[in-house]
Amino acid sequence: MQVTETLNEGLKRGYQITITADELESKVNEKLTEAQPEIEMKGFRKGKVPMALLKKKFGTQLLGEAMQEAVDGAVSEQLEQSGDRPAMQPEIKMEGENWKEGDDVVVSMAYEKLPEIEQPDLSTLTLEKMVVKADDEAVEEALSGLAEQAKNFEDRAEGETAESGDQVTMDFVGRVDGEAFEGGSAEDFPLELGSGQFIPGFEEQLVGVKVGDEKVVEVSFPEEYGASHLAGKAAEFTCTIKAIKAPAAPVLDDDFAKQFGSESLDALKDQIRERLEAEYAGAARAVMKRSLLDKLDDLVSFELPPTLVDAEAKQIAHQLWHEENPDVHGHDHPEIETTDEHTKLAERRVRLGLLLAELGTKNEIQVSDAEMTQAILNQARQYPGKEREFFEFVQKNQQVQQQIRAPLFEDKVVDYIFELATVEDVEADKDALKAAVEKLDEE
């Protein structure tokens, strides 16, 4: 095997690899010799088929295998000798259009290698960590939210009319062009006015009804309604009002707390406080992580593989375009051009991604099997009733596993840096934390 360097420019590398015909023939003969004892052929005892006959029957097939193995081996050997780590899969091309058996095999290999990255002195970093305590006002606000979830309805006094927020129980029959349609009727149906459960304009027309009223509600189905035969159609719903109930706030006592698994109202408040402070801590970590990444971006500088930057810029442009055009799904849209802004953001992401990966590798940071399993289970909960199917899908899909592992690995590397850096606690209130998080979204 002969290797000739053809390109050495920045991170770009190119090589021409020549595998001689004698090398290929030797590999084919090795394969035939290895397989000969197990081969049976009519007219010959097992293992006694002449080599010349085996070569005639299987030689072409084995030559292809030998060629592929030789090329793969040559590529691996060259990368091992050079110490290069390709940023992306090397591009391998066979040279010569009229290759025939007996000729040398010449292939070209091209790639961009990952840059050498020196680990910065992480102990010089100083970070601020926002510490926010859940005050009584925040706890009471969260408690009110729970009360809203647990609200009851009590019958209105006889003759009182329905108001927005009331629960109206009714029988109704819906008609389009004078004909009742499937799914347009119900009995004893409870509807909370203002909930938006029914099509636009329906619930508002029930404000002011009394028990015993028969109200004809006139509405039009939205143009984008799920049932195509009803989309855009005008409809009438004849509603017979059977009961009207006003919302009644629950009594915030120990019995109320037990609905949420707490022994007492005080215990429930303690749980709420802990949950809020855990949420605050998570948000504060996100703010501190952004600050860390900003500092690291200023701290390091190294050459970036152009292909990685280009791929990342295209991904950013594509994502932003879909955010601006939410009605377009899939990839049936005009080609999206990348801008200098996309490229600048891509350079930052690639630089930080390579740096964090290098820090993680050099410091032997790994995501354990237990951590991966827990992360998969957490995602599986998003598919109630299909958790097992999701888990099995992930187990069989290496790409999905990598998508789950990548953020876990990044967070572990970030935590490692936090331990080395100087972290100063800064007391703050929830409004300041909220403003800091909103600033992250703006950037």
UniProtKB/TrEMBL annotation:
Where does this chain mainly localize?
A: cytoplasm
Catalytic activity of the protein: [protein]-peptidylproline (omega=180) = [protein]-peptidylproline (omega=0)
Does the record bear Chaperone in its keywords? Answer: yes
Question: What's the Enzyme Commission number for this chain?
Answer: 5.2.1.8
A single GO molecular function term of this UniProt record: peptidyl-prolyl cis-trans isomerase activity
- Matching InterPro entries: PPIase_dom_sf, PPIase_FKBP_dom, Trig_fac, Trigger_fac_C, Trigger_fac_C_sf, Trigger_fac_ribosome-bd_bac, Trigger_fac_ribosome-bd_sf, Trigger_fact/SurA_dom_sf
Q: Is Cell division included in the keywords of this UniProt record? A: yes
Which segments constitute the PPIase FKBP-type domain? 165-227
Q: Which UniProt keywords apply?
A: Cell cycle, Cell division, Chaperone, Cytoplasm, Isomerase, Rotamase
Protein localization: Cytoplasm
Tree of life domain: Bacteria
> Which family does the record claim for this protein?
Belongs to the FKBP-type PPIase family. Tig subfamily.
| Domain comment (free text) | Consists of 3 domains; the N-terminus binds the ribosome, the middle domain has PPIase activity, while the C-terminus has intrinsic chaperone activity on its own.
Function text: Involved in protein export. Acts as a chaperone by maintaining the newly synthesized protein in an open conformation. Functions as a peptidyl-prolyl cis-trans isomerase.
Q: What is this protein called?
A: Trigger factor
Q: Give the originating organism.
A: Tropicimonas aquimaris
Gene from which this protein is expressed: tig
